[in-house]
Amino acid sequence: MVKLMLALDVMDKNKALTMVDEISKYIDAIKIGYPLVLSSGLDIVKEIKDKTNKEVICDFKVADIPSTNEKIAKLTLNYADGIICHGFVGRDSVEAIQKIAKQYEIKTHHKKKVIMVTEMSHPGAVEFMQPIADKLAEVAKILNVDGIVAPSTRPERLTKIKKIVGNIPIISPGIGAQGGELNAVLDILGEDDYIIVGRAIYKSENPKESAYKYSMLLKGHNG
Ligand code: XMP
Q1: Is 174 labeled as ligand-binding?
Q2: Which residues line the pocket of ligand 1, CB cutoff 6 A?
Q3: Mean pLDDT of successive 10-residue stretches along the chain, which has 223 residues
Q4: What's the gap in Å between 84 CA and the centre of ligand 1?
């Protein structure tokens, strides 16, 4: 079954904690990015992990030289189950993060995912990212990353990228606030893949009901 990842982009620690308390039973994973970490501190990652016991992925879109990427990965993967990075900076930068993830896996016996962005979901991504996205997907396959990010806003691109990466899981943002059409996306994704939903849940009048609704739609689609 396609899984549901909540993009928890709220900027208030108490709001974030209350929200995950209410809705964690309807979601499979939680994505934490700069809005929450910069407003609440990195410790929020551990707090949410401890509170929910869900998979927690940090969307830091890491895009630096290898030695700086290593430092960011060390701090992040200490608590998070995974980290999102950019591939356009070159494979050595991604490999630096993979090296740290491996070290944690050996130490903790827990999987630490390195997830690479291919093509982003917003309109501006067609300008610079789309022309290199297929190549990035090929690099993701060569590096055997644990996941790639590809857009729900462009089902035809999602299909193409999925074809390139084969069995590498996809996490796909764009459903809800960005206008991605759920059924079209669910026809493409498979059981190891995730949709990411943020505002359509946390900004809705009733986040709990909204998360429940998405979880039911995913179940329904998978029979
Ligand atoms: P909404 O509110 O639009 O949130 O449902 C979407 C979430 O996904 C993030 N996002 C991306 N993350 N590659 C990524 O790694 C992407 O292409 C991409 N597009 C959107 C966004 O920051 C938000 O957290």
Answers
A1: yes
A2: 7, 9, 33, 59, 61, 84, 117, 120-121, 149, 151, 173, 176-178, 196-200
A3: 97 97 97 98 98 98 98 98 98 98 97 97 93 97 98 96 98 93 95 97 97 96 66
A4: 11
The H-or-E segment that residue 172 falls in is strand 170-173
Q: Which domain holds residue 89?
A: 3-221
Distance 107 CA to ligand 1 centre (A): 31
Q: Which atom of ligand 1 is nearest to the CA of 120?
A: 17
Which residues are catalytically annotated? 59, 61, 64
Q: What domain count does the chain have? A: 1
Alpha-carbon gap, residue 108 to 140, rounded angstroms: 25
* Whole-prediction pTM: 0.97
Evaluate whether 115 touches 145 at the Cβ level (below 8 Å).
yes
- So what's the pLDDT on residue 221? 82
Q: Residue 140: how many CB atoms within 10 A of its CB?
A: 27
Question: Residues of 188-211 as b/e, b for ≥16 C-beta within 10 angstroms?
Answer: bbeeebbbbbbebbbebeebeebb
pLDDT of residue 179: 87
Strand partners, 194: 3, 171
Tell me the CATH number at 101.
Answer: 3.20.20.70
